[in-house]
Amino acid sequence: MPSKKEAPRESQLAGTDTPDRANTNAKLQSLETVRSDATGQALRTNQGVKIADNQNSLKAGPRGPSLLEDFIMREKITHFDHERIPERIVHARGTGAHGYFQSYGKHAELTKAGFLQDPEKITPVFVRFSTVQGPRGSGDTVRDVRGFAVKFFTDEGNFDLVGNNMPVFFIQDAIKFPDFVHAVKPEPHNEIPTGGSAHDTFWDFVSLVPESAHMVIWAMSDRAIPKSLRTMEGFGVHTFRLINAEGVASFVKFHWKPKQGVLSLLWDEAQKLAGKDTDYHRRDLWEAIETGNYPEWELGVQIVPEADEHKFDFDLLDPTKIIPEELVPVTPLGKMVLNRNPDNFFAETEQVAFCPGHIVPGIDFTNDPLLQGRLFSYTDTQISRLGGPNFHEIPINRPLAPNHNGQRDAMHRVTIDKGRAAYEPNSIDGGWPKETPPAAQDGGFESYQERIDAHKIRQRSESFGDHFSQARLFFHSMSPSEQEHIVNAYSFELGKVEREHIRARQVNEILANIDLELAAKVAAKLGLPAPKAGTVDVPKLSLKASPALSQMNHLGESIKGRKVALLVADGVDGALADKLVKALEAESVQIKVLGPTSAPVKTADGKTLAVDASMEGLPSVAFDAVWVAGGKGVEALKGDGVAVHFILEAYKHLKPVAGHAEAKAWFDSLNLKADSGLLAGNDAKAIKAFTQAIGKHRVWEREAAAKAVPA
Ligand code: HDE
User: Fold this and answer.
1) Which residue numbers delimit the Catalase core domain (predicted)?
2) Atom of ligand 1 nearest to the CA of 89
């Protein structure tokens, strides 16, 4: 921990909620110098001069020309003119949160990294989730990969785990990244589409580059439309190395498993949300943290001993491959809890700078050629995005560990380095700062001594040659519903492709090699002939399916934090409504009372019941389930088109639709077919059935019946 004299940094852990955190907070807050609070302060210029009039510029007379000497207005407008910085070239749309990581135990046999040794140690983290394609102001619920980047502020320096919510990537070699990104980004002539991949250049590229097949099927699956940032898995994607104190290395793949379950939107919901609440994911995360429903993930690793490197039917260095969890299970290492929202979006979420090259002793890279390129790219991009090489001094990026070295000057230098020798070795400043030799603990960073004996060549390893078997494994591991969603996603996206030869190439040369039935179904929806055979021999895997890949097997531990709409209208039975709210709150469900308008409604016994919003203001797509409150209010709701639409839409989106006894007749009149998620009753049993249905996330058995309901 740096002393007060050393470069100060802001606290990563304000707010307290656990005893451990309280301790850490006290320590960290003593270093706080940059978080600014204007409460009780005078309005001043950047030079500290108090401002008397912030309404009028300095003019020659009340109707006269403005005067150049108005330094107050000039300073204000000049600063404003330069408020924007370039957005990230990819992952521009994002949202961040603070939290902490805590190891489950001592993982000394695996790594010497200090933050993975002590269950008592709290390591502050900052996480940024993002979409990839869209610009900073684009919608949250588009079909896209999500970034899942975690900065661990460890005592030994910052470790950035810059991952995604999918475990593989589109390309195998970093040299293809600009091509891939240019293809997926909006097309250059008209900058369309924003935030999506349903356009010619994307499908042109991926249909010509079969190594993308595995990642593309993930992107066409429900994983690309997560319900919430809280309900996403995270993956480090590349194989990394962990190194213990004896210098023994293991290959690892990093996984983040959400306690909230791995849940997705339906495509119709995702599209509607993109319009009704562009900030849907951002808001959901913010509100969950504000209401104390702190999202939690378990960090785990799949471990492969160095000796087993070549035991698989794929190459561990190939980032288009997973290690199926059935072959190598995930070993849990610790947990991450997100419990504090940023104070300032720009200062924290926008300025945070991740880099896969930020690692600490005990962690190292592999020769994955995609990872190797990333090690260069991230720092490079920060230099133009954040305006120079001193971006590590921006408060959100400052390590908790001290960072003395001879690097100096450059744009925006903040630290005032004392001493005269900005070089090493020196005999002027007592030789400081000095190197630390590597050691079992607390030593200097030492790269893993991998022996390399090779020719310098531009060549793809033959072991990277199979592009389809794992895409097939993925498809065959899906439930029938998930498979249908994949068929629909390919059909939707390819349906937006104008050039028929691109559609046909994707169907015949990619999908047919993954699964002929998949290809035939997509072909039928595009009006193309069904391919009779694939174009390559796809190796047969011993594993026919990997249940770990299906979201149906990850529904979450509880319904904590799920969202329920309670529909009310004048005449509602207040006591029943109250009982329901209490029962759901006991399960930490977020419940919103919705009325025909935002005005309070009158209860049957003449009281008023406050509502959180109108049904139009918070539509059914924003909820996991709906309950219609009993009493005479149901009659009023029946005649309200918005309420009818609310119920039908929730039903169509396979959500539990329930209500007190009076609601049953309404549901019947709407022709809603009985199923395990359509419930009515006033007793505790009905509420229990409702919470159980929420726990299953969707009423999948309803999928066929729901098709008949208008969207
Ligand atoms: Fe990135 N990526 N990437 N990427 N990436 C960036 O860095 C890049 C890749 C990922 O919330 C950029 O600071 C290259 C894989 C996330 O700030 C840039 C290659 C994975 C984020 C960049 C990849 C990722 C980025 C843009 C192929 C999953 C957002 C702004 C060699 C494991 C981090 C920035 C945040 C951001 C380059 C491939 C994840 C341009 C060259 C694979 C989560 O440097």
Assistant:
1) 44-432
2) 26
